[in-house]
Design a protein that fits this description.
The protein contains five helices and 20 strands. The longest helix is centred in the N-terminal third of the chain and has 24 residues. A hairpin with a 4-residue loop joins strand 5 and strand 6. The strands form four sheets. The protein has a six-stranded antiparallel β-barrel with strand order 1-2-3-6-5-4. A six-stranded antiparallel barrel has the order 7-8-9-12-11-10. Helix content is 17%, strand content 41%. With 328 residues, the protein is α+β, with helices and mostly antiparallel strands.
Length: 328
């Protein structure tokens, strides 16, 4: 009998270890993954059927999915891999993070454990679960291709960057949206939200991270059915600071205001195009994401002091954010 070379034996062991991880994650999470069916009225008044995936996050039936999966509907159907079928109600959805919370009708159900996407590193094994193309309980595996990506989400003319999006090469297809992306321990670290099509690139999927920020969004949706955000009414981009001011302020860039919305809190406070915002309540503002992070719901109706460079001098302007009205 011919013995196999040591290199082949080691390769086989590595493949077996990889398979065991995927098998373990699938066994742990598949009972918590739900196939969702929806029906919504189209623009022409006709009824349109939709589908997607979700994952149970509490034993009393709360689920997380993508907001676009349940857009235009308040109810739908849910089925599990063991054949149990029931209905669900939409508790709340947030287009600007592409997250939604649903509530199953009746029965105790197994729940997934939420992880922390901020600990992910490029090259790490991840497993995607869901119901692509109507095939229930499908599993695909891959690696984290990149972290820290951003995608734009829109609602009623407002655009918000969904930050720290996970890029993976785990195969995703229509119907995977809303399903979990898990780490090797079977913890949910992302919600699959987008697939890049063949005209842009194949084998590239994106997932909204499960981290401190998105856990807060989910909690707010469960509690009140919506997410409150503050709004100033400025648009701008990163701009390097003049050397003298960079030395004085201890930072190299800020946000140059390119547009101020008429009637907005920013305009009422006297913010002008051409101003450079360098801090908000003492927190550095280096790019639009920093300002976005500052605009939390607890600042609605309060005051935010912006440190502004105008004409080579630095001043502080008090602003009073209002609530961002984004359509459900």
């Amino acid at each position: 009998m011919t013995s196999r070379p040591p290199g082949i034996i080691e390769e086989q062991k590595a493949l077996d270890a990889y398979s065991q991880v995927v098998i373990s994650v699938a066994g742990r999470l598949l009972p918590t993954v739900v196939a969702l069916t929806t029906r919504r009225r189209g623009r022409r008044g006709d009824w349109q059927d939709g589908s997607g995936s979700g994952v149970v996050i509490s034993s009393d039936g709360f689920m997380v999915t993508s907001a676009h999966v349940v857009e235009g509907t308040t109810r739908g159907g849910a089925s599990f891999v063991d054949g149990w079928e029931t209905g669900f109600d939409v508790v709340g959805r947030d287009r600007l993070s592409d997250l939604a919370v649903l509530k199953l009708e009746g029965g105790d159900v197994p729940a997934a454990e939420l992880g922390d996407a901020s600990a992910l590193v490029v090259g790490q094994l991840v497993v995607a679960l869901g119901n692509p193309l109507g095939f229930s309980g499908s599993v695909s595996a891959g690696v984290v291709s990149a972290v820290g990506r951003s995608i734009a989400a829109n609602s009623e003319g407002h655009t918000r960057l969904v930050e720290n999006v996970i890029q993976t090469d785990a195969a995703l297809h229509p119907g995977n949206s809303g399903g979990p992306l898990a780490d090797s321990a079977g913890r949910v670290v992302g919600v699959n939200t987008a697939v890049v099509g063949p005209m842009i690139g194949q084998g590239l999927g994106l997932a909204v991270p499960i981290d401190e920020a998105t856990k807060a969004i989910v909690a707010e949706l469960i509690q009140s059915g919506r997410v409150r955000r503050a709004y100033l009414g400025v648009a701008g981009g990163t701009r390097p600071l003049p050397p003298r001011l960079a030395d004085e302020l201890g930072r190299e860039k800020g946000i140059e205001v390119v547009e101020v919305v008429a009637g907005s809190p920013a305009q009422r406070a006297g913010i002008r195009p051409g101003d450079i915002l360098v801090a908000g309540d003492g927190e550095p503002l280096l790019d639009a994401r920093d300002l976005q992070r500052l605009m939390t719901g607890d600042r609605v109706g309060g005051s935010v002091d912006l440190t502004v460079i105008r004409g080579g001098s630095v001043s502080t302007i008090a602003t009073h954010p209002v609530e961002l009205e984004a359509a459900d």
